[in-house]
Amino acid sequence: MPVDALNDTLAQLDPAGGRYATDAVDCVLAAAKEIGASDVHWQPIADGLEVRWRVDGVLQPVATIPARPGPNVIARLKVMAELLTYRTDIPQEGRIRGAPGEVEMRLSTFPTVLGEKAVVRLFMAPGRFLRLADLGLPLDVADGLSAALEETSGAIVVAGPAGSGKTTTLYACLRELAARRPGERSLATLEDPVEAIVPGVAQSQVNPAAGLTLEIGLKSLLRQDPEVLAIGEVRDRSTAEIALQAALTGHLTLTTFHAGGACEVIGRLLDMGIEPYAVRSGLRAVIALRLVRRLCPACAEPSARAEDLLGLPLSHAKIPRGCDQCRHTGYSGRIPLAERLPADSEQIGRAILDRADVRRLESIAMDSGMIHRWRRALLAVEAGVTSPAEVRRSLGLGTPPAPAD
Predict the structure, then answer these.
(1) In the list 92, 95, 148, 193, which could disulfide-bond 83, CB 3.0-4.6 Å?
(2) What is the pTM of this model?
(3) SS3 318
(4) What is the pLDDT of residues 387-397, one digit of tens each?
């Protein structure tokens, strides 16, 4: 349902009617699923409730709910997620449960000075990005990750900022492991939250209210005889220590990590106080991801001035124009810009033991064969797959680091 059609539908609803909140929420969420949004924001403003959704990583205004029924709309979302409707002064989180096979959704509410803000996260639709081959990773990254999954120990870390595809990649790895030798390996996870069910994997979810924290859960899970252990995210030193300990004691450990690049994972682990020898010996593979929007093939057009946006020489750059096929955004879908740190490199190993800074690590990694995310981006621009403006939006300012001397 296009935005104009959604607004027409909302305009036909009676704000004073008893079903306004229910019907408005149903219309917006149905449209979000249809358009492929990853998040829907419901933010209180002075004259109502502003609705925006995130499509291909970009937040877009959608509609404005009138002020009077605005709180009822938030209350309806909380009912769907089985949250406390009478508590508007504290953050809450819950799952919006749908019929089997439907898109899973999770609700987060937070108090603001103008009322409660709500964000609905729509998890990936069933059947999408199931295996490694579905992710669109560069061949060298996909092959390296696939080989790492055949190992029996060591840590595989998937890094990147929020919304970069870390969790999607982690689930694809789990499905890959479960499919390669069905029933022959014990696969277990501890997540916050569980976003998708993977057949053949024993999945668990943290529950701090019941005392099941990530740290306590991991210690207990290691006594469940797992051969493969997946941790939703490493957020602190204690979790990182347990994950690397598991990796060093005969467990293949998969996890995600918030970091801007593959070498920043090393820097952050060392900054957390993890011993360099544990980082050096425990890491099996480090994959860092960024997502950029793909130019719409129906309307992208060459531009002689595109290189001005990056300040680098370009010969075949294209820019978005917008058409009916891409809903006049100029883009359709996303592609990953992936880095794979060659963790088994002797040069990188020595640099980790020497506590080299991130910039130095990046230079050494590039000398050892790593293709930097900026290099991936420039190749994608030259191939006409994405635009210079999109690279700037995703990667910000900067250029690839120089190789080590």
Answers:
(1) 92
(2) 0.86
(3) strand
(4) 988 998 999 87
